[in-house]
Amino acid sequence: MKPFRDLIPFDKAREILLAHVPELKDKENVELTQAVGRVLAEDVRSPVSVPPFDRAAEDGYAVIAQDTFDAGQYSPVELEIVGRINTGEYKKIRVEHGQAVEVATGAMLPEGANAVVRVEDTEKEDTKLRVYRAVHPGFDVAPAGEDIKSKATVLKKGELLMPSKIGALAAVGIANVNVYKKPEVAILPTGDELIEPGAALVPGKIYDVNSYTLSSVVLENGGVPKVYGYVRDNVQDIEEKLKQGLKHDMVVFSGGSSVGERDLLVQVISSMGKILFHGVQIKPGKPTWAALVNGKLVFGMPGFPTSCLNDAYQFLVPALRKMAHLPPKREITVKAKMSRRITSTLGRQQFFTVRLEGDIAYPAYKTSGAITSLANSDGYIIIPATVDLVEKGEIVEVHLWR
Amino acid sequence: MKPFRDLIPFDKAREILLAHVPELKDKENVELTQAVGRVLAEDVRSPVSVPPFDRAAEDGYAVIAQDTFDAGQYSPVELEIVGRINTGEYKKIRVEHGQAVEVATGAMLPEGANAVVRVEDTEKEDTKLRVYRAVHPGFDVAPAGEDIKSKATVLKKGELLMPSKIGALAAVGIANVNVYKKPEVAILPTGDELIEPGAALVPGKIYDVNSYTLSSVVLENGGVPKVYGYVRDNVQDIEEKLKQGLKHDMVVFSGGSSVGERDLLVQVISSMGKILFHGVQIKPGKPTWAALVNGKLVFGMPGFPTSCLNDAYQFLVPALRKMAHLPPKREITVKAKMSRRITSTLGRQQFFTVRLEGDIAYPAYKTSGAITSLANSDGYIIIPATVDLVEKGEIVEVHLWR
């Protein structure tokens, strides 16, 4: 009985995994007000020009630029004010030589005019306007289509809809948009010992943590968690729950993957699909496996909350984000000094949680069973598989949880 | 007519602003599955110990450690197997000297036992167990309360509920939690020229962008956007809409704050509350103002989409996050080389948008009216108010939008 004959390195496991993650093609139509953070599922071309008409870029007077060429600070040109156009108004006025129309910023330029003289470069007396500055044609005019041309591609399929992109869609008048559907992730904690938070504890049982941490990670990374009841440790229940889980886009089991007599889960999955890897050179998370069943990704994560959540960050997040067409999560790291010497297991890449106080990193790790190893930490350091010791005072790179 | 007599520096504006942002006290009770990203509104103490009982940390045999002291690789100690406890089971078995009880990882330790011998250090033959390794008391036992002690403070008021913290709450059996309510932000674009995306364009009108970008920014930063119809440029409508807006926690106007004849908004607000600042030494965003009306923060942002969205990132986000008890947004920056020389206005801190290709930053800025100045950019560089030129090839720090 030698478990995990084929432990593979972390990078290899992640590479295999990502090579097998399908990018979902399903779309849904959402209102623009709800589209932030979603991913565009098709190219969007503009049905209009933005701005839709030549408009004034400043408060002032629409003029024929040529009329101002002789104007100067001490030699004003005099024009006749023949009307006013407010922002949002449409007026059929035409500017002829010697004339000016008062315009507000954003107002449609009247026909005939080709420039705007700013209000501060003028003096008004009844309908007489003195212009103290020469302007060239196009001055302070935002021409139609300056921002976006009609029929131009505004955004491309696959773009993440940040606020500015939402703005570009609004600008061309789009109120609904096709985005990729969020991947649904079935969450299936296994174990006869689990009871739901909120229920009363009974001897031998513990509260389920993994449904909640996994759901949270899924929510934070563009997925929809689907939490099922607990999978009991028998073949029939595993098969039944797996069948339910496979209705969704990805399935995550937790627990049931250590090497004991009752390790049924991996056996059942092997018989139904293809194991991509089983056993990774990491700590925590050694017994992690991933499989493809009916073309869908199925994960097996350790039952210990800290191991499971670390696995979620290291494997589930990149897989889910790829599936959802989201860019990889940006890691935020800071440098810190290790508060004391820590040892690690050769041959296992360790994710070691730390708490930061100023630029000192204190170990937050208690035991792999302890959720507080994570909950009381600010991030983790990675100790490579080839390193068994981090010295006190050594500079480490802390990967922050947020 | 000299506008913006009291332009203040950006840092000063932000400082004044943050000094006047109230932290909301209202709480709401949410299910743990929905609590990720929220902020805890009270300390949480554990009603239980985690684990709730001494449990096996590995698959193996619960023993009295003293019975194994003479065991060695070539001199096994023989014990009698008197039962088995599965994970999640409660059995009233007592281990006496010379006895062992088979246990699975996570199973409750039987009475009398004080250590676990791992399965790989044993050999089983019917009910005979040969132990090949001495273990000390407590070996591979996770004692009750090892992770979290009963009545201990698990999480403190004000903590951001990341997945690991959600896990700690689940571990102590908490299914619902009191969090701070999300601030509601009334969004009030002003201007007679605005029409809603989805509607048909008519001459002189443009599509409203700011409702959509502002809503998106609010959603991304822990707030609830409340979008109202467009504020028309007259005193009555401004007063009426402001009254509606003040039912929420913060009010954001956009448009109507440049210095023109029709700049009614600032006048109306001044008469109803206290202007905190009006005019900031930034580009874009110079005409920005903030006020307190009935103790509530009211913003006036420029109507130009790019200026408005930049303002949202620079002023609204920090204010909203403080109000929501969220930590400041983490800025992600990268170094890049400027593709060409760019000029800036002395006396104005410029937020200049750029597009990244490899380590080269290309200007993305078109005009302050162009939403594509932002939508086609990856981030922005800050050109200080005292700098009027960035040379081609100069190393700049790009603040990424995500």
Task: Map the helices and strands.
The structure is a homodimer of 402-residue chains.
Chain A lengths: L9 H11 L6 E5 L12 E2 L9 E2 L3 E4 L13 E9 L13 E5 L11 E4 L3 E4 L2 E4 L9 E2 L10 E3 L7 H9 L4 E5 L3 E6 L4 E2 L10 E2 L2 H11 L3 E4 L7 H11 L4 E5 L9 H9 L1 E5 L3 E2 L5 E5 L2 E6 L3 H19 L9 E6 L3 E2 L5 E9 L2 E4 L8 H4 L3 E5 L5 E2 L4 E6 L2
Parallel strand pairs in A: 5-6, 13-16, 13-17, 14-15, 17-21, 19-24, 22-25
Antiparallel strand pairs in A: 1-12, 2-11, 3-10, 4-6, 4-7, 5-9, 8-9, 18-20, 20-21, 22-28, 23-27, 24-25, 24-26, 26-28
Q: In the CATH hierarchy, what is the architecture of the largest domain in chain A at level 2? A: 3-Layer(aba) Sandwich
CATH topology of the largest domain in chain A: Molybdenum Cofactor Biosythetic Enzyme, Chain A
**Overall average residue pLDDT of chain A:** 93
> In angstroms, what is the radius of gyration of chain A?
32 Å
Helix count, DSSP H or I runs of 4 or more residues of chain A: 7
How do the strands of the widest beta sheet of chain A line up side by side?
7-4-6-5-9-8
pLDDT below 50 for ≥5 consecutive residues: which ranges of chain A?
none
Straight-line distance between termini of chain A: 41 Å
Relative strand content of chain A: 25-35%
Number of domains of chain A: 4
Number-wise, the strands of chain A total 28
CATH superfamily grouping of the largest domain in chain A: MoaB/Mog-like domain
Largest β sheet strand count, sense and barrel closure of chain A: 6 strands, mixed
Q: Which overall shape of chain A is indicated by the principal axes computed on the Cα atoms?
A: elongated
Q: Name the largest protein-protein interface in this structure.
A: A-B, 101 and 101 residues
Q: Which CATH class of the largest domain in chain A?
A: Alpha Beta
Secondary-structure-derived class of chain A: alpha/beta
Q: Please estimate the helix content of chain A.
A: 10-25%
Oligomeric grouping of the chains:
homodimer
